[in-house]
Amino acid sequence: MTESRCGLLCSACEFRESAGCGGCTRIDRPFWGEGCAVKSCCEARNLPHCGLCGSFPCRTLEGFAYDSQQGDNGARLERCAAWREEALWPPV
Ligand code: SF4
Ligand code: SF4
Known about the structure:
This protein is mainly alpha-helical. The chain has one domain. It is built from four helices and no strands. The longest helix is centred in the last third of the chain and has 13 residues. The radius of gyration is 13 Å and the shape is globular. The model has no long low-confidence stretch (mean pLDDT 94).
């Protein structure tokens, strides 16, 4: 199930409860800042998540995924790719 635009698992986020965050796909703005470039870009393209974008994985998303502080060493890219496969199944 798609939990975020970038492939992050909001259900596993340790800050979700304390921040009162409903999760990436249910909020207008992330609790951690004025906005998220990935979330905004994805929603401007009317996409449920980045995996369904023709530019996936773009440099912005890769920058998030491999950020030395906040990144997850590419795990969210793999999750987006898996969500894409789920969305495209069965193949036509
Ligand atoms: S980094 Fe951005 S796109 Fe990813 S879960 Fe957080 S707000 Fe959503
Ligand atoms: S993959 Fe990049 S260009 Fe495509 S929606 Fe996500 S952030 Fe935007």
